[in-house]
Amino acid sequence: SRQELEHRTKEIKKSLGKELFIPGHHYQKDEVIQFADATGDSLQLAQLSAENKDAKYIVFCGVHFMAETADILSGPDQEVILPDMRAGCSMADMANIHQTERAWEKLQDLFGDTVLPLTYVNSTAAIKAFVGKNGGATVTSSNALPMVKWAFTQKERILFLPDQHLGRNTAYDLGVPLEKMAVWDPIKDELVYSGELQEIKVILWKGHCSVHEKFTVSNIEMVRKNDPEMKIIVHPECSREVVSLADDNGSTKYIIDTIENASAGSKWAIGTEMNLVNRIKDQHPDKQIISLNPHMCPCLTMNRIDLPHLLWSLESILEGKTNNIIKVEEETSHYAMLALNRMLAKK
Ligand code: 13P
Ligand code: SF4
Predict the structure, then answer these.
(1) How far is CA 121 from CA 19, 33, 89, 125, 191, in A?
(2) Does ligand 2 come within 6 angstroms of the Cβ of 89?
(3) Which of 17, 36, 195, 244 is deepest in the core (most CB within 10 A)?
């Protein structure tokens, strides 16, 4: 039963003590997050991985790219474990290293040495390594603005992988007009743009988040029509149209903090993953909170981590045969760390 699973999980956590560290992303299920030693958005979880040197076992409750980042930033004697290897990220899967190398070659032909690559942390370690090798950095949804600003002090143009929406929303906020942004299509191997080629400042990889694409302009229109007093806050992985019509946007931590600081009785429609929306709703009975899309939007891969998988990982540690170890190969790790450190150094 659920109670037995919870009881056993508590027991093992207690017996492993400081040897064990469980970071949990805000999109994790309640049944999992209750056992997290720390929760956070992607930036906070990356920082924690770099700081925690005590734990021998880091059981990462999140998705594969986050566990890879934790491995890259953790010490050589620490083991990062992902409770279910199927917990990937469809966005990260939209950019592989071969496609990226092909794109880079074409961009060098078109623009010479004027492009700096940046990658959203929601990407494979191989992509982070590619970016690190080429002088670029990682970004998260909570530091994309200063990171893109920094990138423009380095080079005339940026290639932003793999989320076109975070890239477009951020560049737009920095004043780059849409006609100076192009989209690289990794399936057709082609650059799509409407303005002048040499005027292009931002090349957006054609990737997106399958959860956040479900929040639409018509969802916003519906909320505005039903209740004009309701505020709309969305994650910047939503499209430009949705972000521009919303009242506010930001990372998971930003969304949590904004609702936390809002006045009692305020009304909010939130455009982000379902587990987080439900949790915010439970934690703020004094506020009226709904999902921007009335059909709650789950991240299927985040949800692969459930209590049985978490417990299974903990049991395997106790038995001395840890499963699902995430170990990024040394050279990849070295270059990916350059990209991550260029970001972490700016905090
Ligand atoms: P943040 O928690 O950094 O906002 O990231 C959201 C996300 O989609 C993680 O996969
Ligand atoms: Fe990937 Fe989107 Fe799920 Fe985050 S919410 S892990 S970006 S698919």
Answers:
(1) 27, 21, 11, 9, 23
(2) yes
(3) 36
Domain 212-291, CATH class in plain words: alpha beta
The C-alpha angle 272, 123, 347, rounded to 5 degrees, equals: 80
Burial zone of 155 (CB within 10 Å; 0-12 exposed, 13-18 middle, 19+ buried): middle
pLDDT digit string (tens) for 13-46?
A: 999 999 999 999 999 999 999 999 999 999 899 8
pLDDT in tens, 167-211: 999 999 999 999 999 999 999 999 999 999 999 999 999 999 999
For the domain made up of 92-209, the CATH class stated in words is alpha beta
Q: Do the strands 181-185 and 190-192 form a parallel or antiparallel pair, or are they unpaired?
A: antiparallel
Q: According to the annotation, is 61 in a ligand binding site? A: no
Q: Name the residue type at position 193.
A: Y
Say yes or no: CB of residue 204 within 6 Å of ligand 2.
Answer: no
Indicate the domain borders of the chain: 2-88+302-329, 92-209, 212-291
Q: Is 96 in the pocket of ligand 2 (CB under 6 A)?
A: no
CB atoms within 10 A of CB 296: 13
Query: 92-209 with 212-291: one CATH topology?
Result: yes
